[in-house]
Amino acid sequence: MASGPLELVEREVPEPGPGEVLVKVEACGVCRTDLHLAEGDLEPRRPRTAPGHQVVGRVVATGERVGVAWLRSTCGTCRYCLRGMENLCPRSTYTGWDADGGYAEYVVAPADYVYPLPGDRPAGELAPLLCAGIIGYRALARCDLPPGGRLGIYGFGASAHLTAQAAIAQGAVVHAVSRSAASRELAMELGAASAGDRPPEPLDAAILFAPVGDLVPPALEALDRGGTLAVAGIHLTDIPALNYERHLFQERTLRSVTANTRADGRAYLELALAHPPRVTTAPYPFAEADRALSDLAADRVNGAAVLIMG
Fold first, then answer.
1. pTM of the predicted protein model
2. Domains (range + CATH), the chain
3. Is the four-CA dihedral 14, 20, 25, 28 of positive or negative sign?
């Protein structure tokens, strides 16, 4: 990261095509997926693509406040789309991966895939909701946490700090596992029952946000009988060998979380806008996007990093 993977360039304002909107960017969240692309953990799909998929801005033609998120398009006709599982569409495309994203002054997005947002909330606080919040919401559903259950959260960054609040609001007991002292402190401030190296009691469910495969065995081992571990990242380092009796027996489940559907996005945003979570952000000027990625890579960001335009 010392060399800086991003290059600041001048481009023409993009032209929206049929069914698309041109959005003037106000803020864009900095996601670990952006870091995976910058560091080569994810293969680029398009050369010289502007990253960023947690975009808050205004539609140039109407002035409407909208959010542009990770899921950019789906085919609408495959068996996954027809079953309400568009997040698994083989022809899905993604903002900041298949098309230019929000590390820019303007971004073009399909109108059917943007979310309306209130005009009276700070853009920097809304931006993390568009990926960190939505993905955390889906991960919480995928981990099958029972009412009042004990939830372990491994890695306590942008998505985790929003997910913890949603789980606690539902009556869950949350145990945060993080190597960062600042993240542990934030977890306790947000209502976690513990924050340390390991959960102090068996878990009914767990979510792994840290992209570290070595954490999968201890997270599975911490589950009570019938518990589920959901892995929420798009990239994970290799998982060590699992021991069947210690890690999976007694109907423990390991499952992945793949992107999100627009229904997930609408449901989470409706909840988050009606009952706003505390969004802890680290703001960066647009021109310092490289520094934001470097800080994220070095675990120097507490909460969510956000690029602020203007």
1. 0.95
2. 20-130+261-308 (3.90.180.10), 133-256 (3.40.50.720)
3. negative
